[in-house]
Protein 1
Amino acid sequence: MIKLSKRMNAVADMVTPGNVLADIGTDHGYVPIALVQQGKIPRAIAMDINAGPLQRANEHISMCQLEDYIETRLSDGVAALEAGEAETILIAGMGGDLVIHIIDAGMAVCRQAEELILQPQSELAKVRRYLREHCFQIIDEDMIIEDGKYYPMMKVVPVKEDNFWRFLPEETICSCDMYGPLLLRNGNPSLRKYLVKQHKQLNKILKKLESQPDSEAISMRKQEVLEEIALNESAYTIMGEIKNAGI
């Protein structure tokens, strides 16, 4: 049996049982192998833009004797995936800009899927804003800590429209984009730790900037840091209000 890392196990847990999975950027193919071995999914399509990782995935699939259940395809994003061919599309372990590019380039295919499981490694606010603006609704979120690093992940579904955001103030929307609406709502303990850590780091940066001779560049950077601190504190306030309300 394939044993997944804590991060990838949390990602795999978001896949709806019984769905056909398309794993984009599959690398070693561990997630589809583990899910098929567990009997959680009937079959999968493991895809990667590079031949090397796909060859490694093929070797692991063969070792586990799962050739009848997991197909591999050389593909740039979802280019080699037909619309409706997979109920779940997994895009994990890559930068936020690349996640956005893959969805944008394969919009027709992505909107035909039942769900997308995303685990961007950067640009979280940009990814969430993109999802919000392109009618992908976040229905589940998690954040785990592994080897001292924080990994947020989310399950999203395509919708015709999402009216939820219309009634929220801009500051709350910005906090949700940055830190995750469901992570905030659910009071995710890993997010709480992250917010405390980030607040300390931002204040250290601010003190260092304040000790330097003033200039236009320093002033601009100080303003940026102050805005980040305000956003951080807003997020922690939101979590506290939710906790106190017993939601």
Protein 2
Amino acid sequence: MSHPTSFSAVSVDTKANVYFDGKVVSHSVHFSDGSKKTLGLIYPGEYHFGTAAAERMEIISGSCEVTLDGSTDTVHYASGTFFDVPANSGFSIAVSEGICEYICSFLS
């Protein structure tokens, strides 16, 4: 899977979304069609996120281990892969080394 390297004609929130004492940080990107994505970094550690809307998490650098809520399976995701998270759900994500970079798309 090839991920975008840039987005054109967007607006970006300058205030960062900061979670877990700065170990997960993202910025929101707004598109002219009304859609939104976040671009972020995850530092080593284990974290849990809840979702209201369905999401697609594209890993663009680094890697992580993910367990979706309701599952006992942990799956490894490397750069160039993605996983989908259902609405009103959540996931646990672990980064063992380096920085995991991602694009989160909110699905409708």
